[in-house]
Amino acid sequence: MSLLSGHIRHRLLLETEVLDAVLARFAPSTAEKFIQEVFWRGYFKGWLEHHPSVWTSYRDDVSGLLERLNADDELRQRYDQAVQSKTGIVCFDAWAHELVETGYLHNHTRMWFASIWIFTLQLPWQLGADFFYRHLIDGDPASNTLSWRWVGGLHTKGKTYLARPNNIEKFTKDRFAPHGQLAAHAPPLSEATAHSRQAIGRADTTLPGDTVALLLTEEDGRPEELFSDLQPIAGISLLATEGRSSLPIGERASAFALAAVSDATQRASRHFGIVVDAPVETDDWDAKLTAFAQANGVKSLVTAYAPVGPVAEKLAKAKDSLARHGISLFERRREYDELAWPHASRGFFALKKKIPAILEDLQRSVAPRLL
Ligand SMILES: Cc1cc2nc3c(=O)[nH]c(=O)nc-3n(C[C@H](O)[C@H](O)[C@H](O)COP(=O)(O)OP(=O)(O)OC[C@H]3O[C@@H](n4cnc5c(N)ncnc54)[C@H](O)[C@@H]3O)c2cc1C
Question: Which of 1, 34, 107, 133 has most ligand 1 atoms within 8 Å of its beta carbon, as the pocket-test mutant?
């Protein structure tokens, strides 16, 4: 457990840097397990890029379920107990509290929590994923949604994760021992929608020729490297943290995302010697970006490619509106994503097999740029 996930999720720290640092100290065989863990994030992101309907149906399901909570008193009561640490299952209640207070849970704890939510409390997985996504400082559309689906048996079809009292007792060093309180079976969930696989859209490779300005988002906090070949004349930073859910976003998660983008804004400003507007949260990216581009006299905005999630949704909408004003929005994808995502359309194993080849490619193309 490195506790790096919030920083890696917002790309304050790049996967390539983590891999570089680890491989500088350890042989690939020694660090194999950790290297694979780092690749899990890219796997989930790439998988969701191949199956975007999983995200849209999750979002639709959450909306429908939040409406149902207003009409179904019994469901509302069970949901409130779960998110307010009042289920009576001591470990689960402690973890719900810890999540809200700290914005973080250990991976094993997340697995136990999701399993108890789904199989013991029999609550809809989508509401649990929404609870996590609102509070985790590393809240990530792909890792979160797909991990919840994995626990429920929807990601690896039919394979579920059952939280067992003995396992909890052992790994919490006797802090918790929920004997007789947890479901003994974890039958796989099912869903009506079949999610077909799609080809991943191409990222913009042509460089904007004329005067450009930067757009910074919570998807990538390292504009100095990503746009090192450009000379932007101004910058703007926008937040989409509220877009995680229609319910309130946890204080820790909001503060972390704001601090991440503020930090990127200050670094970009220093590095490029330009004014970068401080981050603001707004629903209307179209109007904000159009006004910014017009005020600075730019016809091209560049930003980091946003994988499936609220930022990508805002960008897609803004792109059309900007185009109507003759302004182009270029999305640049990182080499790491270009190399990993094509192998992330099925199970993790296919990507795992490619890790040595990807690391070699990265050493050739990315490492020299970072050093
Ligand atoms: C139900 C559930 C929901 C989750 N939701 C999220 C989420 O919203 N955002 C998120 O970043 N992670 C999520 N995870 C994955 C994982 O729990 C966290 O990434 C991990 O706990 C981060 O702690 P760490 O930095 O100490 O990880 P380490 O164990 O130190 O791993 C190093 C890095 O590898 C990556 N990594 C490791 N394990 C995973 C994994 N299983 N999936 C993806 N990346 C991984 C992370 O970038 C992490 O920082 C979820 C897991 C579960 C079971």
Answer: 107
Nearest CA to ligand 1 atom 28: 1
How many helices and strands, by DSSP H and E, does the chain display? 17, 5
Span from the CA of 344 to the centroid of ligand 1 (angstroms): 17
Give the per-residue pLDDT at 130: 98
pLDDT score at 106: 98
- With bands split at pLDDT 50, 70 and 90, how would you rate the model's confidence at 367? very low
pLDDT band at 203 (very low <50, low <70, confident <90, very high): confident
CATH topology of domain 52-171: DNA Cyclobutane Dipyrimidine Photolyase, subunit A; domain 3 (1.10.579)
* Location of each CATH 3.40.50.620 domain in the chain: 212-332
For a ligand 1 pocket test, name from 17, 133, 138, 151 the mutation site with the most ligand atoms within 8 angstroms of its C-beta: 138
DSSP string over 34-100: HHHHHHHHHHHHHHHHH-HHHHHHHHHHHHHHHHHHHH-HHHHHHHHHHHTT-SS-HHHHHHHHHHH
Using most ligand atoms within 8 A of CB, pick from 13, 37, 146 the residue to mutate for ligand 1. 37
Task: Look at 73-77, 93-97, 103-107, 225-229 and tell me which has the smallest mean pLDDT.
Answer: 225-229
DSSP structure string for 274-312: S-BPPPEE-S-HHHHHHHHHHHHT-SEEEEEPPPTTHHH
Cα–Cα distance for residue pair 258/239, rounded to 1 Å: 7
Region 159-186: mean pLDDT is 98
Which ligand 1 atom sits closest to the C-alpha of 43?
A: 43
pLDDT tens string 230-275? 999 999 999 999 999 999 999 999 999 999 999 999 999 999 999 9
Q: How far apart are CA 90 and CA 105, in angstroms?
A: 16
The CATH number of 212-332 is 3.40.50.620
Question: In this model, does residue 210 exceed pLDDT 90?
Answer: no
DSSP letter (8 states) at residue 223: H
Global ipTM: 0.98
